[in-house]
Specification:
Layout lengths: L6 E6 L2 E6 L3 H10 L5 H14 L20 E3 L6 E3 L1 H5 L4 H7 L5 H48 L4 H21 L8 H8 L7 H18 L6 H19 L6 H17 L2 H13 L4 H25 L21 H32 L10 H26 L8 H8 L5 H20 L7 H21 L7 H16 L3 H12 L5 H18 L4 H30 L4
Antiparallel strand pairs: 1-2, 3-4
Helix pairs in contact: 1-2, 5-8, 5-9, 5-10, 5-12, 5-14, 6-8, 6-14, 7-9, 7-10, 7-21, 8-9, 9-10, 10-11, 10-12, 11-12, 11-19, 13-16, 13-17, 13-18, 13-20, 13-21, 15-17, 16-17, 17-18, 18-19, 18-20, 19-20
């Protein structure tokens, strides 16, 4: 055995391992090797370490391949997301493809590229299939519920039987929420939390409950839509994909983004808007691999949904607003007024939704530790059941006396765009729908807010159109004014202007109102900024995170009490 000041040679099982302390030259080698911004320096660093006879790399760093390998993970200074290195490559099945790509790019980039393409594609395919049949179920159940309400309205003798059925549906909804509490509400805020790594859920339970709970809401006529559950379905499928393929932590966000984008695209038949939504709203950041993952998920989901639509002879139309004529430049001031009005309406809606959600969450989650009840959970379930019965009963009353006010409102948008409703009817609809939507989603009933918000935007745009046509704007531009109102309301409510503009262009199939929609969205978001009102999804997500922190603190206190109660030996 031989020793010097810098190197110590140890013998074990006849193999010699060299441990080199980092002198000045070694540090320069390691720094050159780990400079991922300059590939030529990394190659130089590798040769430097080889020349020095180092088989293990710089101190405290494990190098997978001395000829050009890199550490397993490295922090990206731009966004803090860990870039997957050689370990990520091992989970990719086409090794030949990986070897080919690594000739043109680093190992981490090649591994990420293959992972994004393969797993995002699988996620998009399964999401497209599930969402297609989910929307078929929505069409059947929503129509069946309206038919029953109309039938009972003509035969009042069946009213007691109708409300008994609604109570039973409310009990089923309570059972679904007990089975999977994470399925409650609209779905988009929780899905955004999952994509960003802030929240978790049991993906299979949430997937099943999102479908079952939504079907109950659709059949009862609750004013909730399919888009939120579809996004949550995509998020659940992506989590199942991550679990099945054992995706490394660094790549999970990309697969989740693909699922969310695929769910949005399959629900709205607006692929570009889905791509923008995945980056602008779901992630609130831009990353090339996020865009790639979202794009692959959207393409595969749309391909599957389009093929199934063709096979079943079903139209994939999302919004039907009729012909949208171009607004002349002499009325260029009108979108600003519509946007300001829609911004005020969106701000009121966001604030009321957040406060109602917080109120009902506090009502259901109040602690009863100091009471004689041992099972707090049972009491909470009873309170939730009572709340759901009230929501379903209110839906029944509305369905009997005003059936058009029930449901998500997709058909109502067409009626409003045609200008068939008087201004006072639109005003009553706006008030009734706003209260009804907030009451329903705050109760925890499963269903989305996206289509209901589009409906509120159409009603808001209709009110603005009534005022503008009375002020001299020709009636022929009524549908255009309504479309601008839809864009301004949804853009302000979710604080995603690009998503709103692209969605309306894709949904209407016309770009003539693009400039005016941008102006209206700008005015709407300006109003919300002045009033300091955040996105409705961010407000609800903040409540979910607060509740999660409170539960964690409560569990920590309970564990501390248990430990303190254990007698010391």
């Amino acid at each position: 055995m031989e020793k010097d000041d810098k190197n110590e040679i140890e013998t074990e099982n006849g193999d010699m391992d060299i441990a080199v302390n980092a002198n000045d030259g070694g540090k320069r080698c390691a720094e050159a090797y780990h400079d991922t911004a300059r590939l030529e320096d990394r190659a130089t660093g590798g040769e430097c370490l080889k020349t020095a006879g180092v088989g293990g790399g710089a101190p405290d760093t494990e190098i997978a391949n001395i000829d050009g390998g890199v550490p397993e993970t490295e922090t990206d200074a731009d966004d803090g997301v860990l870039n997957t290195k050689t370990e990520a490559a091992r989970e990719i099945f086409p090794k030949g493809l990986h070897a080919f790509l690594t000739k043109f790019m680093p190992h981490d980039r090649a591994a990420k590229l293959i992972a994004c393409v393969l797993k995002s594609g699988v996620t998009g395919i399964f999401t497209g299939i599930i969402v297609f049949f989910f929307r078929m179920g929505y069409a059947a159940l929503n129509g069946g519920g309206r038919y029953i309400y109309g039938l009972v309205a003509e035969r009042p003798v069946f009213i007691p039987l109708l409300f008994l059925g609604l109570v039973i549906l409310a009990a089923f909804m309570a059972a679904v929420l007990k089975f999977a509490p994470d399925s409650a509400g609209g779905g988009i805020p929780r899905s955004e939390g999952v994509v960003r790594g802030l929240l978790t859920f049991k993906w299979l339970r949430t997937l099943i409950a999102s479908v079952a709970g939504s079907f109950i809401s659709f059949f009862a006529g609750l004013p909730l839509g399919t888009e939120g559950p579809c996004v949550q379905i995509g998020a659940a499928v992506s989590e199942g994909n991550n679990a099945a393929f054992k995706t490394v932590e660094d790549n999970k966000r990309y697969v989740r983004t693909a699922g969310v984008a695929a769910g949005f695209a399959a629900a709205t038949a607006a692929p570009i808007a889905a791509l923008v939504f995945a980056t602008e709203e779901a992630n609130q950041k831009y990353d090339p691999f996020l865009v790639l993952s979202a794009g692959i998920g959207v393409l595969t989901a749309m391909a599957v949904a389009s093929a199934l639509s063709y096979a079943f002879g079903i139209s994939g139309a999302f919004l039907e607003m009729g012909t949208i004529p171009a607004l002349p430049l002499q009325y260029i001031w009108s979108p600003l007024l519509i946007g300001a009005f829609a911004g005020i309406a969106a701000a009121v809606f966001n604030k009321l939704t957040a406060r109602a959600s917080a109120f009902f969450r506090d009502l259901l989650g109040k602690s009863m530790k100091n009471t004689k009840f041992k099972s707090i959970e049972r009491f909470v379930q009873i309170k939730r059941l009572i709340l759901l019965i009230a929501v379903f009963a209110a839906t029944g009353l509305l369905g009997l006396f005003w059936g058009d006010a029930t449901g998500s409102g997709d058909k109502l948008i067409t009626v409003v765009s045609a200008g068939k409703l008087a201004w006072y009817v639109l005003l009553i609809l706006l008030i009734v729908k706003t209260v009804f939507i907030i009451f329903s989603t705050s109760s925890g009933a499963v269903g989305g807010l996206f289509m209901p918000m589009l409906t509120l935007g159409a009603i808001t745009g209709g009110l603005a159109a009534e005022a503008l046509t009375a002020a001299g704007v020709p009636d022929v531009y009524y549908p255009t004014l309504v479309a601008i109102g839809v864009c301004a309301f949804i853009g302000g409510a979710i604080r995603a202007p690009v998503t709103a503009v692209v969605l309306i262009i894709e949904a209407t199939g016309s770009i003539v109102g693009g400039l005016y929609s941008i102006m209206a969205v700008f005015a709407s978001i300006t109003v919300l900024a002045i009033l300091r009102v955040d996105s409705v999804n961010d407000l609800i997500l903040a409540q979910l995170l607060t509740r999660k922190s409170a539960k964690s603190a409560e569990n920590s206190d309970e564990n501390s009490q248990i430990v303190a109660a254990v007698p010391k030996k």
